[in-house]
Amino acid sequence: MKLSNLAIDTIILNALNEDMPYGDISTDSLFSKIEQSKGKLIAKQDGVLAGLTVFQRVFLLIDDTITFKLYFSDGDFVKNSDVILTISGATASILKGERVALNLLQRMCGIATKTNKLVRAINNENIRLVDTRKTTPNLRILEKYAVTMGGGYNHRFSLSDAVMLKDNHIKAVGSIKKAVKIVREKISHTMTIEVEAENLDQVKEAIESKADIIMLDNMDIETMKKAIVLINKKALIEISGNIDIDSVSKKALPGVDIISSGAITHSIEAMDISLKF
User: Fold this and answer.
1) What share of the chain is helix, strand, coil (3-state, %, to 5)?
2) Active-site residue among 2, 33, 79, 134?
3) Are 59 and 86 contained in the same domain?
4) Number of domains in the chain
5) Which of 34, 138, 141, 262 could form a disulfide with 132 if both were Cys (CB 3.0 to 4.6 A apart)?
6) Segment 143-193, tens digit of pLDDT
7) CATH of residue 72
């Protein structure tokens, strides 16, 4: 997944407008456009980088004369005290973009770092760790990009991307079989259908419905093992529900293809990064 300026500029401009709707009173009172400064972006803890393009873009939208020298790239692991990049340009421009740039970068790096921890805990290249739609509204493209920088993969980006029949769809229609039948008659033959199953009876029904992907949602380990035997490669198997650093390795069972985690985007700690003149 790549980020383009077109994709991120609206997010950044909205954030800048929120942060200084009528200018920056402090900075505008102290500096003109003449004063120049140089700063260092410093990692204050170990972590995985994501969002350096976004960081730079914030400043360039304010002042396209600002320059950068990068020492690392997105996806790189940095250690506490590493200098990630240097920034040079008008003092006022750097000060105006500092907080927005850091807020976005720190969140993205936090996501990449948490994702990477779970990927390493799974320790199985045949199982993909994927994100969910549990993202910050209007920041999904940045957060899903950060997941990929941490070694994870993206699930569907939006409701328009794929068929995924969850518990409330099934309850509202009446059964898995009925829901799959209705959907299959209306979608293209090129599209897959994923079904959420919460127990073994639903797993059997999903198999009989010829679902392409079966999500085992919030099952205990023993039930998962039984479900994997039942499915027996008739569908891809996705594991979901309370996936964290303590549980993910236990749920990375033989036969599992995908593990999805909402926590890698909705419950993260921003990485500590500072910009110092």
Assistant:
1) 45, 20, 35
2) 134
3) yes
4) 2
5) 262
6) 999 999 999 999 999 999 999 999 999 999 999 999 999 999 999 999 999
7) 3.90.1170.20
